[in-house]
Amino acid sequence: DLDLQLDGARNCLELVHELGCHRLAVAVAYHSAEIIAPRRRRSVQTAAEGNVAHFPLGGGFSDLVLPPGSLAKQHPELAPEMAGAARDLGLHLTAWVIVCHNSDLATSRPGTALENCFGDRSVHGLCPSHPAVRTYALELCQKVLEIGIFDELFVESVAYLIGRHGHPHELWAVRDDPATRYLRGLCFCASCLRSGEERGIDGTALRMFVAEALHRTWNSPLAVARQPDPGDELSSLLVARPDLAAWTAMRCDRVAALVGEIAALAHSHRSRLSTALGIFARPGPLGWMEGTDAARLALASDRLVATAYYPGAGAVARDLDHLLALVEPVQLQLVQTLWPEHHADLATLLAKISLARSAGIDNFGLYNLTTAPAPALEWVRAVADLLAG
Question: Using CA atoms, how far apart are residues 244 and 261, in angstroms rounded to an integer?
Answer without folding.
Answer: 26
